[in-house]
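Suppose a colleague, Dr. K., hands you the sequence of a protein chain of 538 amino acids and asks what its three-dimensional shape might be. Before reaching for any lab equipment, you can write down a predicted structure in token form. Begin with the sequence itself:
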Amino acid sequence: MPKVWKVSPKHSDDLLEQLLVNRGLKNKSEIERFLHPKLEDYEEDFKIPGIEEAKKRILQAVKEQELIIIYGDYDVDGVCGTSVLYHGLASLGAKVLPYIPHREKEGYGLSKEGLQVVKEKGAGLVITVDNGIVALEQAKFAKGLGLDLIITDHHLPLEEKPQCLALVHSTKICGTAVGWCLIKSLVSKELAEELLDLVGVATICDLVPLLEVNRALSTASLVQLNKTTRPGLLALFYEAKIALGEIDSYRVGHILGPRLNAIGRLEHAIDSVRLLCTKDKLKARNLARLLCEANDQKKQLSVQATLEAKEMIAQERGLHLDETTKWKKIIVLQSEKWIPGIIGLIAARVAEEYHLPTVVLSIGETESKGSARSVNGLDIVETIRKCSDLLIDIGGHPKAAGFTIDTSKILDFKKKLEGLVKEVVYEDMDELLVEAEVSSKQLTKELVKELEQLEPTGVGNLRVILASQNVRISDIKTVGEGKHLKFKGDGMEAIAFSLGQLASLLEEGQLVNLAYYLEINKFNGQEKLQLKVVELQV
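The predicted structure, expressed as tokens, is then:
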């Protein structure tokens, strides 16, 4: 569906100055802090309450060679956080093992089954990473087993806090970064800096706003990533065909992240932890290959499942042809065929295409897993929490949530959820934010370098979309079996992914309006200016 282009009001003829104003940055100190973020400017954010109590218990466990279990999660944030704590504790000489719950068998976060397993392994201390803040019953269960529990997490808390030995919690940063703050207080400055490569991957992939402390963390981490010697990351770079020196926020979020995530969606995320923790180059190559194969399989499954989801929506809407019918303001889909590992991907794609919050359920015999994605104007985790009387558990963020529900209660859940959002007004669903209109004559390689000063880009600091009007196009063709459109715009190379269907509407020499990312395409040792087209207006 074409979007309405919303062009930011013009404030300056200098493009960089215009982009900074768009971000609310006007005075010199704000601009300096944004363009040149430094970790030392955010030391107070790293001094999270609970760290001192946690340190004391960890050092006791190290001294007594007590088994420490790092209890992580199966997404990128959980995997990277588990690896950060493993490397840090191992450097202290700790007896330490990672534990990642199985997505289908155990579900998200601390579980009584998982705690029972680690107790049987002989653990005395359990440290969570990226989970635990809402695990009230599980924390009590751990205490009953005689396990000391340290919780490190960044998710939204409940009013009641879990009973544990130490609670290290901040919503400003991702789960891995919270764990890093704890490890940073225990290890050498050099090791803390080295571990920033994993902190950055998690920060970018967990979609926290890349502003202030997160901007400083991700900026420092990209420097570290581009000089990392970690065998697992190097093997993953090789398999994904990206080189040191070329790693930016886009490659982390769209190439590395999905590969680290994939194995946990299909099998068990412990293999991602093994990849990030191994020192064996051959083992790293084998694990990296395994993750990439899982990513290909995940793509195939999610594409097929998304097509099925769209068919369900079309069928439901086809039953209600009366124009006066008001469509429901949330989409709820379910299937016994969809595995829990891909329902978040289905929800994200459906929400993006239909501009409505979407809940997707993987139906089990007695219990079902749900994943939700939202749009501007609805805090999805708080909305679903209002249905807690029907749920087994729930966790997440304003834009994404996951939960478990008794299968017999799904119909009641759906009705209650639809009622809760009945009066909600969603914001800016069909708008494309264009930061500035420029003429094609202004587009140069030097301008690309100027735009790179805004990196790393992501949530809160979106990659810059520019627009040009009356661009003359030529050499029109499709690539990728007709899926993508390729052409020249005023003589510059242009690629428009997923817009191949427009080829039949275009003619040589036609004038069009383009919204695009400006980039340099490197191929066979050559560098060419390229427009990565987001939308095209005929």
